[in-house]
């Protein structure tokens, strides 16, 4: 699997969110470099958990929709004489 890459705009938004969180919750000011470092750390160390959960959720939705389609197909069956 390729390394996940974000656009500069996405990264800037994430950095802003991390900086705001650290400031509000920990009353600490951190710079953009430190925030980006934290983002990279969490992505590297915890990202797989979130990614795998997303895959699991997507599989669940797919299975539910496939089951719905199966019922719809059964409803289209015509009586055999």
UniProtKB/TrEMBL annotation:
It comes from the Bacteria. InterPro entries: DUF2164. This is DUF2164 domain-containing protein. It comes from Pseudohalioglobus lutimaris.
